[in-house]
Automatic annotation (TrEMBL):
The keyword rRNA processing does not apply. Keywords: Coiled coil, Signal. The keyword Signal applies. This is Coiled-coil domain-containing protein 68. Residues 1-19 form the signal peptide. One of its GO terms (biological process) is intracellular signal transduction. It comes from Cricetulus griseus. Residues 98-132, 174-225, 267-308 form a coiled coil. InterPro entries: Tuftelin_GRINL1A/MYZAP/CCD68.
């Protein structure tokens, strides 16, 4: 099929050469000395047709040489080159050229069919990849949603447990505070009672001290009187009575001294108890303040944990609801 155009060109050149030869034969005499009637005298001196024929033969040989060297060139380029030599001759009339065109068309159609099949396969793969990606996103979104539900249930349970513990702790702390308040009230009553006892003991000791003082004065008076009687050596019976009375007074003074000492010890014990109660009151006040501070800290921690858990749940919920529309 590729030899068709060069063959046509060669035939054309051969025809031109033959026509030139015929024209040369008509214009140049076949024998020397013979004159052609149709050729002017100038043709006898200059023979351009011989030169044309020689040139055409060279062109023909050169084209056949190019045909052997470039036999695999494109058909359209050969057709264009041959058209320049044929001066407008129609190449489509050549069956070899038509077969070549049909073969090219069939080859192009086959390539188009293959490209269409490849495009269809690419479309199928693209749809499959899209579907796989959407399925993966749906699975991820479902897992996120399941994790969100599980986490939300856990957080709700933790919040309920924390709230329950907070309520229990609050009740315990309130009960403790109430008990401490009752203890404070009892301690205050005891302090008042002890204070009253101390005042009573102080008054009693004061009376005993006054009585002791009176007894000591009477004893001294009797002793001086006894000394006077003994100095005169009279009234022995009176002296004996005075001695007896002095002895009774001494016993009373000793008894009062013992009672006063006991009352002082009791007073000292009451004062120590009162100081201990005061210290206990201070400790109770401090414990109450510490309990109040602990309750406030616990409530603040529970509120902070609640806020953090709620914010975390909201964040997870937003992430899940961002992924779900993308999957759709």
């Amino acid at each position: 099929m590729q030899m068709a155009v060069p063959s046509i060109c060669g035939d054309m050149l051969l025809w031109v050469a033959n026509a030139s030869g015929s024209l040369l034969s008509a214009m140049v005499p076949s024998e020397p000395g013979q004159t052609n009637q149709h050729c002017p005298p100038s043709c006898l001196a200059w023979n351009p047709l011989l030169q044309i024929r020689t040139t055409l033969e060279k062109v023909r040989n050169h084209m056949f040489k190019d045909e052997e060297e470039h036999g695999n060139e494109n058909y359209l380029l050969d057709a264009e080159q041959s058209g320049n030599f044929q001066n407008g001759s129609d190449l489509t009339t050549d069956p070899n050229s038509l077969d070549f065109l049909m073969e090219n068309m069939r080859r192009k159609d086959q390539q188009l069919l293959e490209m269409n099949r490849e495009n269809e396969m690419l479309k199928i793969k693209l749809e499959a990849s899209r579907e796989a990606g959407a399925a993966a996103l749906r699975n991820v979104a479902q897992r996120l949603f399941d994790n969100y539900q599980t986490h939300s249930e856990d957080m709700k349970k933790k919040q309920e447990d924390g709230r329950r513990l907070l309520q229990i702790n609050s009740l315990e702390k309130e009960q403790t505070l109430k008990q401490r308040a009752e203890n404070l009230s009892q301690l205050s009553e005891k302090l008042e009672e002890k204070h009253g006892q101390i005042i009573g003991l102080e008054n009693r000791v004061q009376r005993m001290e006054n009585e002791k003082k009176t007894l000591l004065e009477r004893k001294l008076c009797l002793e001086s009187k006894l000394l006077q009687l003994k100095s005169h050596d009279v009234h022995s019976k009176s002296c004996q009575d005075l001695q007896t009375e002095i002895s009774i007074l001494q016993e009373q003074i000793c008894h009062l001294q013992f009672v006063i000492h006991s009352q002082h010890q009791s007073l000292h014990s009451l004062i120590e108890e009162m100081e201990g109660l005061k210290n206990t009151l201070k400790e109770q006040d401090k414990n109450i303040e510490n309990l109040k501070e602990k309750v406030n800290i616990l409530e603040a921690q529970v509120r902070r944990e609640s806020v953090l858990s709620v914010s975390l749940l909201v964040h997870v919920w937003l992430c899940v609801h961002k992924c779900v529309p993308a999957c759709k």
